[in-house]
Amino acid sequence: MRRVRRYGYRRDSDQPLTDSLADIGAGQGLSAADRRILDWHYFWDIELDRSFALSQISSWQFDTGQSYRGPDLLFRDGYDQILPGLAAGLDIRLDHVVSAIDYSGDTIVVQTNDGPFQAERCLVTLPLGVLKGGSVAFTPALPTKTTAAIDKLGFGAGYKMVLQFPQVFWDQAVHFFGYAAAIRGESAEFLNMARYTGHPVLLMNTMQDYAATLESMTKTDATARVMSDLRNMFGPSIPDPVAVLTTDWGVSPYTGGTYTYWTVGSSHRDQKQLTRPIDRKLFLAGEHTMDRFPGTVHGAYLSGLKAARTLRRHAR
To answer: Among 48, 188, 189, 228, which residue has the fewest nearby CB atoms (within 10 Å)?
Structure first.
């Protein structure tokens, strides 16, 4: 990957990462089996982290994100265990669907399905997929530079399935294992939750076309598809799951995808554009506004702190 990184940086124009890999001859001369393993490596090391296929990822930007200092941690009982501390003392209204934000006057009016709200300033944390979809109307329309940044940044497609089994049939000592599909783009990663919870649970993770395929199915059909992958790995006698949970990020009107990354033609400048105040009273935050940590929970959190500081300065 160092070679393709250097090649991409030297180019005068951006292009998809697949083209840069082809230009340097990556994978040439490999057997079909070795090529399948290489495709798995691309999926696990590049595509899955960015929620985009190689054909969509920017050659200039694909390796410019930063790692946050400290160890990797897994919230065994879910992220909701940190929310009570963050939400303490706040007036949070659930089940309020925003349809319009009018910031044309001295007072901002936010229209919801449960009536309007008014404020002097407004911090908008709608996901990038919702901003792209245009389901929330802004009056006046957002500035051209802001909408251009929204359009250019990529918002990926991802899918997760949690499967609980009657017993563990895989190696309980491993953290992850993967399915290197024979068809490019249909690979999957499995996180061994039994290692962390003591329960026979697997978390399946995939992205882009395979994510869209599974998301378009009924839960029963999607489960059968994933179980086919598992039986290809562990044999036909493994048990059926006793419980299954799935995500719907790609089709949900409240998300419109998973998280942000740099597709061809986008750059860090687009995130920086999104952090600029609009008329000194409208502010954007979310992982899509963080050029250092896009696509991450800590990026979303840090973007909120940054936006709050900016809002406070403009409130003086």
So the answer is: 228
Can you tell me the distance from the alpha carbon of 277 to that of 38, in angstroms, rounded to the nearest whole number? 44
pTM for the structure as a whole = 0.91
CA angle 274/281/136 to nearest 5° reads 65
**Start-end of CATH 3.90.660.10 domains in the chain:** 158-246
Fold observed for domain 93-155+255-314: FAD/NAD(P)-binding domain (3.50.50)
CB 202 within 8 A of CB 124: no
Identify any residues that bridge with 207 across adjacent strands, giving them in sequence order: 158
| Residues in CB range of 45: below 8 A, 6 or more apart | 1
Cβ distance 282 to 154 under 8 Å?
no
pLDDT exceeds cutoff 90 at 113: yes
Short-list 232, 184, 225, CA closest to 53? 184
Query: For 258-276, how does the pLDDT look when each residue is reduced to its tens digit (9 = 90+)?
Result: 999 999 999 999 999 999 9
Which residues belong to CATH 3.50.50.60 in the chain? 93-155+255-314
For helices 219-234 and 208-216, the axis angle rounded to 10 degrees is 130
Distance CA 247, CA 251 (A): 9
How large is the average pLDDT for residues 179-208?
94
* Angle (CA) 115 118 119, round 5°: 155
DSSP state of 81: G
pLDDT of residue 316 exceeding 70:
no
What pLDDT shows up at residue 10?
82
- Element housing 184 (H / E): none
Which amino acid makes up residue 163? L
Ramachandran bin of 41, using left for φ above 0, alpha for ψ from -120 to 50, beta for the remaining angles? alpha
The number of beta carbons lying within 10 Å of the beta carbon of residue 83 is: 11
CATH, domain 158-246, list 3.90.660.10, 3.40.30.10, 3.40.190.10, 3.40.50.300: 3.90.660.10
Asked if residues 45 and 187 have their Cβ atoms less than 8 Å apart, the reply is no
